[in-house]
Backbone:
């Protein structure tokens, strides 16, 4: 148990040293660039826990400026102190991410290699006996699989050898069959050549006949062409003569049209002037008519007022006459019914008086 704890502490110490070395390599790669741009370094580290190194850096830069012709850092105590400070405080590189992103290819390769070293060391230092046994079992299984694969390869090779022998026999049989086919093809080729030769002779005879007929037809077409050319020339002359006559007729018609246009323009101008005069007369008459219509509407309103009043008066008089007539008619009717009622009343009274006289006797 104590040995296991001691071993684990040693392993952790080794990993810690490797990781610390990796971080110090990062700051070591950008130290020259930091010292080249001292103003930027000063602005970043000022008011931080790392500003104590700014004084030695300014002193070193002042020393370099006083010595002309020297651009390399001196190997003295100040330089070593500055480098040691950066290596101890390696976290400073995190303040300059741009410098870390712009590292050269060689620096990036070194960082990648050291990162791989750290990862490999972590894997090898932290492996256990159980993981090693598991790996050995996997290797043993892979070995057996390899043996089986080799056996299968041998079987496949034997099968391939047998297939090659069968292939050779098949190739020989195919060669014999091909020889027979080639003989048949040669015989057919000779027969085809004879048939082709016969067809060529027939075609030649046919071509000669066609050529003779074509030449005869060509002579006939040439004669027809000459006749057509002569007819075309005669027709062309006739058309040219007719065209000249039509052009002269066209010129005459154009002259007549121009004279007519001039006459039309003259008459149109006169008509337009007459039309303008008539429009002026129309405007004067319209003004007179408008004035008359104003007076007419005024008189019409007066006339309508008089007619309406007179009609209303006549309607009122007729209404009064109608009322008087209705009242007289009603009074006559009432009097008629009154007289009839009085007469009936007297008759009833006389009958009643007679009845009373008869009862007293």
Residues:
């Amino acid at each position: 148990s104590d040995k296991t704890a001691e071993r684990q502490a040693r392993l952790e110490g080794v990993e810690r040293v490797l990781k610390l070395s990796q971080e110090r390599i990062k700051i070591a790669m950008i130290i020259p660039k930091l010292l080249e741009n001292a103003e930027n370094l000063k602005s970043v580290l000022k008011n931080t826990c790392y500003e104590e190194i700014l004084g030695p850096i300014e002193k070193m830069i002042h020393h370099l400026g006083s010595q002309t012709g020297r651009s390399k850092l001196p190997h003295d105590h100040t330089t070593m102190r500055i480098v040691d400070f950066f290596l101890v405080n390696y976290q400073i590189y995190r303040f300059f991410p741009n410098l870390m992103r712009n590292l050269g290819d060689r620096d990036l390769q070194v960082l990648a290699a050291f990162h791989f070293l750290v990862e490999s060391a972590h894997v090898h230092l932290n492996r256990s006996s159980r993981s090693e046994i598991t790996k050995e079992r996997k290797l043993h299984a892979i070995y057996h699989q390899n043996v089986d694969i080799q056996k299968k390869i041998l079987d496949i090779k034997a099968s391939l050898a047998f297939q090659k022998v069968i292939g050779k026999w098949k190739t020989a049989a195919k060669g014999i069959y091909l020889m027979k086919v080639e003989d048949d093809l040669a015989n057919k080729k000779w027969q085809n050549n004879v048939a082709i030769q016969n067809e060529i002779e027939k075609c030649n005879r046919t071509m000669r006949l066609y050529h003779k007929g074509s030449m005869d037809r060509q002579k006939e077409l040439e004669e027809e062409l000459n006749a057509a050319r002569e007819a075309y020339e005669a027709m062309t002359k006739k058309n040219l003569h007719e065209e000249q006559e039509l052009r002269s007729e066209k010129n005459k018609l154009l002259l007549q049209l121009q004279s007519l246009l001039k006459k039309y323009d003259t008459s149109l101008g006169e008509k337009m002037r007459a039309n303008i005069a008539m429009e002026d007369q129309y405007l004067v008459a319209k003004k007179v008519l408008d004035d008359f219509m104003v007076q007419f509407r005024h008189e019409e309103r007066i006339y309508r007022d008089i007619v309406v009043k007179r009609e209303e008066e006549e309607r009122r008089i007729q209404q009064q006459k109608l009322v008087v007539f209705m009242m007289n008619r009603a009074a006559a009717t009432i009097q008629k019914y009154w007289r009839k009622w009085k007469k009936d009343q007297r008759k009833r009274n006389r009958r009643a008086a007679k009845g009373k006289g008869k009862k007293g006797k």
In short: The mean pLDDT is 82.
